[in-house]
């Protein structure tokens, strides 16, 4: 009798429209699963609503994507609009700007390879910096996004430019960046009002960023499949 085998989907080499949609759906799942944790983090140094806000916003994004857009840029733009309209506080405009800038960077592309992804994420981060006026070390989502981008760029420049390896490295870097916010003094946003009392708490925005990058890694690795 032949032994049974379980096939594992091969990692993606590019992101198609369906794959980008799967990313947003997976982000919705992870944010929903961790919403209470995100809100608890925000309760310590913010308004205690980050988890609920992000959960509502990504659910709205998934709903907006029910009718499959025809390009990766269109997926990202619909996501941006949903987050801007549904996520309260600073996170809505910041994440909305991120995905909107990504959409612009991906305009005209039918698929996104490692280099294009790094370029798009860099454009998105540029939008966050411009809107939020935050820098590395300010104890914000930038402290997770920046190391993720560095990993993506390194992966895109490596021989073979393997998308899966680059995105897995980005997810690990984002999570390390999230953890690194704990000893930081908050310099931006509501947390900055606490001064020294902000030290010892992980930033909720950096935490949601790490989940969003992990969602992308799950899709690219084949752990979560896109639509056929």
Word description of this protein:
This protein has 228 residues and is an all-alpha fold. It is built from nine helices and no strands. Helix 2 crosses helix 3, helix 2 packs antiparallel against helix 9 and helix 4 packs antiparallel against helix 5. The radius of gyration is 17 Å and the shape is globular. The N terminus is likely disordered.
CATH architecture: Alpha Horseshoe
List the domain count as a whole number: 1
The CATH topology annotation reads as Serine Threonine Protein Phosphatase 5, Tetratricopeptide repeat
Overall pLDDT confidence? 92
User: Helicity level, as a percent range?
Assistant: 55-70%
Give descriptors for this structure.
228 residues, mainly alpha, Serine Threonine Protein Phosphatase 5, Tetratricopeptide repeat, 9 helices, 63% helix, 0% strand
Outline the fold blueprint.
Layout: H1 17-33, H2 35-45, H3 50-64, H4 72-86, H5 91-105, H6 114-132, H7 142-157, H8 163-180, H9 204-221
Short précis:
Residues 18-218 form the DhaL domain. The chain is mainly α. The chain has helices spanning 17-33, 35-45, 50-64, 72-86, 91-105, 114-132, 142-157, 163-180, 204-221.
